[in-house]
Design goal:
19 strands; four-stranded antiparallel beta sheet; 432 residues; 23% strand; eight-stranded mixed beta sheet; elongated; Aminopeptidase; homotrimer; Glucose Oxidase, domain 1; alpha/beta; Arc Repressor Mutant, subunit A; 32% helix
């Protein structure tokens, strides 16, 4: 079975449901860039894919950064003067400022307010906030809750630990016929947020699961890492492996109901950029292609000038461009099964282009070969034109993707034509 | 006399009438890709131009193809049960499926219908159909005629021969001051069709006639060949001559009332492409420029990857884009004298650009030379600007066509300026 | 003080008033391409800047041209039969055809008319006409005046001298840290015309005055020359100096109320072209960028193919595109103080880009450096993005201007980010 067979065998409805239910499983866990929530998440992914889990000790120097202490939390709440919990981590892990220091004291309302985060424009939503690299404590709550805090004093309690430990990440390498690799990277450090980025984690996981069942040209490397520090850590300790990365995608926010957005690699004209553009353009749905900019997700690290890897970012509504972003409204209802499966299929389609994008040589380059004699004019119209395009442009200078783009035809149409021509000894794969 | 003089001496009305009347002369002949109709056509062209006629034996291998047997037809009809001819080749040579095998038998209506071709959407028109490479027999008729066929049985009679013979084509070489050639190719294999491609045949013939009366830089090679197999045959037996082909045009469908269309060579930026673009852009008429695609006329063969010649296709309404295409409606009324002469003049204008497109050198490249002292500021406005453009850009990197394009001026204006500057020793032709 | 400090210290209102009043001082003088009016103008400029005045003798060969005789005029008039002066040079120096030969005779109306120039479409305006290279005499007058000339005879009197002398021009060289030069050229040969080109002369003079007070990277060379023959003369006798000219602007018509127009150098993609484009694009005002054409002002000479210098032309309404051009309506009211200072500021902004457009190197090219640790995430939004862009693109292949263009940010924002990053040892200037 090859990738085209895999693509054609996908049941969109089932795939969407499967992805959505897996997100539901991971949703309640309180993840951070280190600690037991992240480790538990990777362990659950291991049920489906043979993930290798790495631990990098706190204090390890990774380029300009240092792996931070490990953070773990048991409980946290704010109690009013009546002893009632008015904000409770057990009800939502978003209530805690991620990486908060432990605390247990009574504070007056004024002091408390300096440690509270709300969204006045969305009074029912709880924001998601972090303080990884600056020691602090705090709570996130809805603005409605905030307005109800009128007591003079409150007891704040955070049972958390910030200690030497390690940063965990998961890695899976699927060996292909070639050493050249496709990198798929997603961050797995967010607590109860469904689109950002459990959607990416589970689409990546399902991609790994399905690709492991087929014969593939490229080797595939999947990274499930904490954002920023995870990508920097992996790059720092695996620098020599980056030479094999020929294409790559950061997956993120792939389940919301917005259009698909592809953000180009810093190179801007890498093969992954052309492949993604082609799949988007020939999709029945509106898709957006945007240029690289040095912000967003971990493409920032992969596309830093010292690496400049051909890695783009695949998402639906882009980074930060929806109000639910980094709030409690990015919940299970915010991700749609049909959008998850649509993202999944489009990514497989991009990989199909990469896998099959070879150079072919026309074996009868002088004048057209006589297709009629071989019964090839009985093919339907688009296939006949595709055969003529493939023959005309297979002079060693054009890949199949180049031909599809110049002909204005779908890659799969051109691929089918190339295969028919090969079977009829009119075309052969160029030795590279 | 040079090509500019020739261009300026054309009488559009007379030229249009002359071309239309010549088409009328060739229209009744039943041509095919081989046989006496084609041969007779070439003989008539010989009245005006010293065409050399070549015969290539049936069975000759030409690249992936073989020269087919020669087809000749005397008569063909369908008789109804009353013995009346309901379809008669003598009334229109389009009635016969071109390359039909001989037959003489009575068939029932059902069997007959499998061999009949009509155009239900245009019930008065007779289609033009061929079966060159698959042995078959058949008749083409109007859909109205078809609906009248209600007898149980019909007598079908085709007095044709398909035997070893030869493929004929005409060639004319006009030697120029340079060995570099301009190729003009047209197919001459269609029976009673006026626009496709008698218009091309006769415009090519008149081009040859007129160019033979002037002094020209390029050598010109005219080919009057059967479509596809003729181009393949010529290329196969004249491969070594193709190195001299520096520019070329396939002429086809140049007499209908649509806009002129220029289809670029596969190279896309050959000098012929730029020259045609320039002439079209500066024409008062709307013209279309389209990219190469591997379908259409014999540019398919000249632009196959093993040759990749700088050959474009000049037509009016493009290949297959008008309903009359390959039907009896492509008759003498479908081609207009004024459109024939317009095509003729535009092609001559393209050739004028090619003939005069040299590199010049400004002999006073540092600051402007003093035009006033030489009386050159008395020239009218556009010519003064043209002189300044020619002086400014004649640094060895720009041809006159490049200068015309950058200046937004007509080639002939820039050419006139260059000639005035040469006369005043301010400019000289670069030695290439 | 550097150029950014200079730019930020400009008071637009004061600057506009200062420029307008200086124009008023030079406005009454009768200038020409040689003679005492031009010399007097340069002497007045010397009050503010240490201009070096050069004299090139009549008869000197300069490329294809010869420095003409020197022209000086004392008085000129037309008297009617009643002895009344109906046209009087003392009322406006535009009344004389510039470079008129001396004359003193009575002519009949018919002969007189052959020497009169008017603007029938603007009956109150006096045109400005010259006859530098063809000996002639003549008067310019309003069309209203012309229609009143009904006497049979008139006395014409021109007390002028055309004798061997010299062509004068002013030059100022401000040495910078680098030998590479920015050329600023303006023509100073027009009599009472305010926009063309006293506006250019005085903006250039103020640029020289202000640039002499700061530390600058580039050397600046200012030329105050007669149009055409002055540029040709300077180029002919200073050919070896042109190798240092890395950027340049011809200044002309910089005081009218139209939009700013930048006409690109012949190279079309010189750094001055990019810098001017950038400043125009980020201006709050509509600005026009036009391609080079071989007409207009002295860019014709600097951009002749034998020099091809990176010199653009900065003006407001372009050369010849306003009805007041070369008429008495190009008076002091036609130039606006706020437009003069706007031109001045935009030119300084262009020079700021050139002065600060270095290549930088990211000292932490692998992954992002940790900005938060250095307190650099406290910067406001646009500066944070600018820092990320500068870090991401400072790989040795992009200048700051390239980065500003790719980021869609103002040059000054990117420059500020680069300086902050340098202070934090995250970036350093590349050694070229």
């Amino acid at each position: 079975m090859n990738i085209s067979d895999l693509k054609n065998s996908i049941d969109p409805v089932k795939t969407g449901q499967e992805l959505h239910s897996l997100i539901g499983k991971l949703y309640p866990i309180c993840r951070s860039i280190t600690g037991s929530g992240l480790r538990q998440t990777l362990d659950i992914l291991k049920h489906n894919i043979p993930l290798q889990i790495h631990e990098v000790p706190s204090g390890t120097k990774v380029f300009d950064w240092v792996v931070p202490k490990e953070w773990n939390i048991n409980d946290a709440y704010i109690k009013d003067s009546a002893g009632e919990k008015v904000v409770d981590f057990k009800k939502s892990n978003l209530h805690i400022l991620n990486y908060s220091m432990p605390i247990n004291k009574t504070v007056n309302l004024q002091e408390l307010r300096e440690h509270l985060f709300t969204l006045p424009d969305h009074p029912d939503w709880v924001p998601y906030k972090t303080s990884y690299y600056k020691e602090n404590w705090g709570f996130c709550l809805s603005h409605k809750q905030f307005l109800n805090l009128t007591d003079a004093n409150y007891n704040v309690f955070i049972d958390a630990k910030l200690e030497d430990g390690s940063l965990s990440y998961g890695e899976l390498y699927l060996e292909g016929r070639e050493k050249a690799e496709i990198l798929i990277s997603c961050h797995a450090c967010h607590p109860s947020l469904a689109n950002d980025n459990l959607s990416g984690v589970l689409v990546a996981s399902l991609l790994a699961e399905r690709l492991s069942t087929i014969s593939h040209r490229y080797s595939y490397r999947f990274l499930f890492i904490p954002g920023t520090i995870g990508a920097i850590t992996w790059l720092a300790i695996n620098e020599e492996k980056t030479v094999n990365i020929k294409h790559g995608l950061v997956l993120s926010g792939v389940g919301d109901r917005g259009n698909v957005t592809y953000k180009k690699s810093r190179l801007g004209n890498a093969q992954i950029d052309h492949a993604a553009y082609h799949v988007m353009k020939h999709s029945a749905d509106k898709c957006d292609i945007i240029d690289f900019y040095p912000y967003g997700y971990d493409e920032r690290q992969y596309c830093s000038p010292g690496f400049n890897l051909p890695v783009g970012c695949f998402s639906r509504t882009p980074y930060g461009k929806y109000p639910e972003y980094h709030t409690s409204a990015d919940n299970l209802g915010f991700v749609a099964p049909e959008c998850l499966s649509d993202s999944f299929i489009k990514i497989i389609s991009i990989f199909e282009v990469l896998e099959e994008n070879f150079n072919y040589l026309n074996l009868h380059p002088k004048c057209e070969p006589q297709l009629g004699r071989r019964g090839l004019y009985t093919a339907t119209g688009p296939d006949e034109m595709a055969m003529l395009w493939v023959l005309n442009l297979s002079d060693g200078n054009n890949t199949l993707l180049d031909i599809a783009e110049k002909a204005g035809l779908k890659f799969e149409t051109v691929l089918r034509a190339a295969k028919i021509l090969c079977e009829n000894n009119l075309l052969k794969k160029a030795i590279v």
